[in-house]
Queue: 2 jobs
Job 1
Amino acid sequence: MAQIKGPALFLAQFMGDKKPFNTLENITAWAKSLGFLGVQLPAWDGRCIDLDKAATSKAYCDDLKARCNGLAITDLSTHLQGQLVAVHPAYDTMFDGFAAPAVRGNVKARTKWAVEELKKALKASANLGLSAMPTFSGALLWPFVYPWPQRPAGIVAEGFKELAARWKPILEVADKCGVACAYEIHPGEDLHDGVTFEQFLKATKNHRCVAINYDPSHFVLQCLDYVGFITEYAPHIKAFHVKDAEFRMSAKSGAYGGYQDWKGRPGRFRSLGDGTVDFKQVFTKMTEIGYASWAVLEWECCIKDGSQGAKEGAAFISQMLIETPTKAFDDFAGGKADTKTNRRILGLQ
């Protein structure tokens, strides 16, 4: 069997009001028909999960698993709730829609709500028998990522200090639940590359529940070494989004995209196999570091329809899974040896 589990599907981009996307039972039956073995649930979507019940009732969680047509629940995604832990005022209005209606327009209430939702999701993850919770970090510093005028001295350290303080009570619950917070390294978040992940890790005093949700597509758009990243941060990678992307050199715009829509940007997300991510190397390196959790398709493509992307993606991931060898390829040429033989071969006696 392959060491990495899969294929699995992140349901967030597929949930809708029409069959087969309107209920957990219907969408998991559809996913199963495409060849998926697991699903990642968006923890903000009531059609997939009642977070209040899941946080307090293992019986509810057992029933939830039974409703998935034999597919495993791989993780609970809390990207939207995580985003709201830290929001720079420039984004308040745009991010308000991620929150419950009762706390919109009230920053303090919204932040408190997000923190409590994340705590619930961690408890729900534990009740489901999961070990990692993919999420976003939120961002206080993103408007200053490429600043003019220059950033004031100390503002970055202050931003990470505050971000760590906001996550501290969540990480304490994570520790009690035995569930890692797997932050997706993502532009728009304060944790958007390896260096910023390290800054946050340091600010949390190397908290053992600070982990990574690895997604190579976001590194392609930032021109980062996405395979080398796996080696650098191997101990922290606890979740894996399989998403493709491409960066097409342009004479008119670059990494920032010129305020264009996704089709017009030099860097854009694609369906699996249609972009430039070298997934053979990615899966090789993930296998090499001992990653043994799920490979979860996150479909985002501005060219191809999601239904086609999901169908092709299930087969694509299946083909990438590596069955680790049970013996070395050159074992047949080996022979028994002892110290006397080895010394004779070396010409020492």
Job 2
Amino acid sequence: MFDFGFAGSRGDNEKEPMTTMGFLDHLEELRKRLVYSIMAVAVGFGACWGFRERIYSIMERPIVDALRANGLPDKLVYLNPTEPFNLYLKIAALAGLFLTSPFVLYQVWMFISPGLYRNEKRYVVPFMVSTITLFSAGGYFGYRIAYPRALKFLIDFSKQFTPMITIGEYTSLFLSIVLGMGLIFELPILVFFLSLMGIVSPGFMLKNFRYAILVIFIIAAIVTPTPDVVNMCIFAAPMVALYGLSIGVAWLVHPDQRAARQKKAKQAS
């Protein structure tokens, strides 16, 4: 049986039996969810393979725009005959994973749901919607704002040289920025689960706000591909806003806060 450590905060009306599963049952359930997820991603891969060139044209738009703005050739190069084929495989796989992410996230939820009480299972829709929305927002922010500005700085700084940018190197940089920003935007989801289990509290997050700002700027300096302060601030600004949002999330779901609100509601009634 799963036990996430916050059963003590539940009211009497929430104490219905949970599904008890043995170790082998857990393994079988995990295997089933993994098989379903892999099958879904494979279908998504097949669907995205037919659009691989169109997907990559969207990915390379930031570097093409930056090169054209400086009057430079806008064609990327490759050094190995197999590199384009391997690149398209990677792109189709990642696009397929993103396309089927609602189904994959649902499989994750179905795996952990036997250890949840009935009132906690209602979080499945908000969990899926907020996870996908935040990840998409982070990726879009990286693609439309952070990454183009970083490329513009780098190309302008090196315009006295002739660039020979390979498709593999560019794609690696693109994915590290866009996917990295998508993962960073999942901070409220992480705080949601940590607060739900009572590991972090809004008071703790407020008390350590200054240290959080320091850590955020260190992360921004690592993630930012350029050394200038402006781009670092562009990366750090949404992380600071997300930390503030996470404090509100922690206040809503922390067991102590929920118990205090329930007590206040009973006294008012």
